[in-house]
Amino acid sequence: MKKIEGINYKTNGKYTEYMMAAWFFGKGQIDAWTKEAKKAYRKTGETTFRFWQDGTGFLTIEIY
Question: Which of 62, 60, 63 has its CA nearest to residue 14?
Fold first, then answer.
């Protein structure tokens, strides 16, 4: 299993903290996308994931 050192969040291309991303997109949505990204990272080794939410924009999750 691949070890996750840390996670970076970007809101519409700008680095942001988890709490700000959670406020912007909703905590439940951020947690669901983070879980999905971690699962895909462990399966494929891909490190960057983009998610779209209508009316809000893109969230990018980078795993390292």
Answer: 60
Residue 20 and residue 41: Cα distance in Å, rounded?
Answer: 23
pLDDT tens digit sequence for 2-59 = 677 899 999 999 999 999 999 999 999 999 999 999 999 999 999 999 999 999 999 9
Nearest to 30 by CA among 13, 49, 55, 5: 49
> How many helices (H) and strands (E) are present in the chain, helices listed first?
2, 4
Q: What is the pTM of this model?
A: 0.89
Terminal CA-to-CA distance of the chain, rounded, Å? 14
